[in-house]
Automatic annotation (TrEMBL):
Keywords: Membrane, Transmembrane, Transmembrane helix. It comes from the Bacteria. The lineage of its organism: Bacteria, Pseudomonadati, Pseudomonadota, Alphaproteobacteria, Sphingomonadales. The chain crosses the membrane at residues 61-81, 118-137, 144-164, 176-205, 212-229, 282-303, 315-335, 347-367, 379-401. This is Glucosyltransferase GtrII-like protein. The keyword Nucleus does not apply.
Amino acid sequence: MTMVASVPALIIAAAGVMTFVISAVQSHINAKHGTDHAVHSFLIRCIRQNNYRLFVRIPNLINKAYIGALPLYLHWIFAHFSPGIMRRAERLINPFMNACQVLLVAMVAGWAAGMNVYFAAICALLFALTPQFYHALSARNFGLSARSLGLFFLTAAIAGGYLVEADPTSIKGWGLLIISCYLIWAFSTFGAQALILISVLAALLTGHFHTIAGAVAGLIVFVCLHPRYSLGYLYHTYRFIRAYSVELAPVYVLSRRYSIWRDIIRDIWIRIAKNPKDGLRYAYENSLIVSALLNPLFIVAILGKITVLGQDEPLVAYACDFALAGWAAMLVTSLRRTRFLGEPERYVEATTPWAVIGGAAVLLGFLSERYSVEAADTAGFGLGLVFLAVVAIQVAGSKILSNYLNSKPHQIEDAMKAISAGSVDGEAVRFCSNNEQYTKLMLPNDWQFSYCIAVGHGYCGMAIGEAFSQFPFLHREALEKIVATYKINACALDRALFEDIFENPPADLLKIETQFLSEGLRVLRLEWASPMTAPATSAVGG
């Protein structure tokens, strides 16, 4: 290997290592505060108790709940390892997959025949340091998540689509496209949503149809390999999305942020005027601001598409097309009626590899023509340094957020100990809370739970809007119905909402007493004349 060739290789390797290190630092900072770990631990335990078979109805939940939007492939893999390995993997899987995606982007960028040898290295560096990836509140930085897997497979699928368009007889291209799409369906609900929406928009806006064919073929493979499980998962995911759009979105995302667009015109400025710190944090979570300011190469790639700059290179033109499709997906999902499809900035995040390849090519090509190749390369690395500075600020923000959360009084562990100590031998703990975030945190315990883990089938006979005042807070009447119907014997009350239940207790409620009390939390112990029998614990999908 010559010295000239080795320098870009070293830059690419350094970009991968840098991505891993920064992601690992953020994962470590946020490890104590990610609540999804509890859900993952719960699902992994359910798989083990189900003899390592996939299921459709979720065991150990007293209420009827299914795996809508909860693919189990990743949990099935981790079910075969010890909890200690899972805990380490939870912190390292996202950094590892992020680093792998940097290498994948560098490899794909190397297909651009018209660019110099440093182009792949610059793309790897810019992608590795894209500020949006290190957003202090990104779900990718709070423990185990299939999102990084989904984004990696989506990048591979779109790359496979490029190979197929270049050569429709390419076995390598079709294999990469179909296998990647199958893995998206298997591992990531959001990855599947992004695959469908971005593929459709790419076809409508730019005429690229092969990723749609890959999505269909991958779905067929998924269904053929696990027919009962896959069909159950797809059906309940459809019900989840439909119920989320009608019932949950109004009491969850839309109640917290009325309109992403109204934010820009009015709401952010009102909040900043009242409380600058609160207003800036609110602005930091706005999808349009995140997409435009923390991922600026999208703007460059789209301008390249409009001005036809750099479009004579097939890969660059293809990359700009998918950057446009990703930005269009963000705009489509930014409306109130479509917010149920997930945070709009996720679709920008999903197509960042193509924005980087297209945007970097357009920017470097423009600077090369105007000045020189050396000046263009210098500008590319300079932009990487700017990105690095923004990333450093966000990592510092993660630390500040972590310190703030650490300053809050811890009550959950003490409450868990009190509930376990107060349980009667042979009687299963049946738990619920008026704040279902508390229920979520309790899931690692080997108890039975009433928990709205996925919408789509109501909740104890109630619609979601009827049960929740604002997600995840239950109305008092709804909680009382859940407690009475499921014969709950341990009920945690967030005292900021309300701290007692049953002005007129049910006839078969023999005793109710306080088992644990703190400044913000009260745990009630309930004794019933006829306790409820345990729910089914084996609901198998093939």
